[in-house]
Amino acid sequence: MDDSPAVEVHRLSRAYGATWALRGIDLNLRRGQTLVLLGPNGAGKTTLLKVIATLLSPTGGGGKVLGYDLTREQEAIRSRIGVLGHSTYLYGDLTARENLRFVAAMRGGACTDGTLAEALERMDLGACADQRVRTFSSGMKRRLALARLLLDRPALLLLDEPYTNLDQRTMKLFNGFLQEYRQLGGTAIIATHHLSGGFAVADRVAMLKGGRLVFEEARGEMSLQALHEHYTLHVEGEGA
């Protein structure tokens, strides 16, 4: 495996007009690790994911993703990452299987029925592969969006609030997928409000407040209680 960092950014900043969404972010994430980004609404989590995904250009600073420059090699980055945002971008009038086949065709690939079935089974959607997506629950749509990412086998996953509207069964399945993905060498960055869900899969934890990185540490022997205490101190505390 390439031992260069999966993500390394230095003094990364992003402004929307006169408003700074990110202020001097430094991050270094090794390949095969999962980083969980925590913070309140407006902290800069989504903006950071979008800059790493090359959907937004940095206002200041820079870095590399999977060895490619953030501003000069954007196409190379985009071809190697998978992004799951607030919207699943699924077609309700198509079945789950048809959604996957359509996406594969649009990206210039051809997937066998076996490949499609495997992706659906891994997300526990095999039994409803031929149902129209408009009949799916929010959790099922999230799982189908993940199955779509599996087709590309991305080296880096960027997941924005993936635990939204997930029941306990779906959350367990989702975290199981992330743990397997990491064991196979995949790298992930997860932005979430869900401390316990993110904690279950994290190798590293980072916290943002007001566009600044206020805490970053390896999970190591950290307990969930300790994570809550760090969040209270660094994010919710008056002096943070």
Model description:
The chain has a 6-stranded mixed beta sheet with strand order 6-7-8-3-9-10, sandwiched between helices. The mean pLDDT is 91. It has helices at 45-52, 74-78, 96-106, 113-122, 138-152, 168-183, 195-201, 224-236, and strands at residues 7-16, 19-29, 34-38, 60-65, 68-69, 81-84, 156-160, 187-192, 204-209, 212-218. The longest helix is centred in the C-terminal third of the chain and has 16 residues, at 168-183. It is 35% helix and 26% strand. The chain is globular, with a radius of gyration of 18 Å. It has 240 residues and is an alpha/beta fold. It contains 8 helices and 10 strands.
Keywords:
alpha/beta; 26% strand; six-stranded mixed sheet; globular; four-stranded antiparallel sheet
Overview in brief:
The protein is α/β, with parallel strands linked by helices. The protein has helices at 45-52, 74-78, 96-106, 113-122, 138-152, 168-183, 195-201, 224-236, and strands at 7-16, 19-29, 34-38, 60-65, 68-69, 81-84, 156-160, 187-192, 204-209, 212-218.
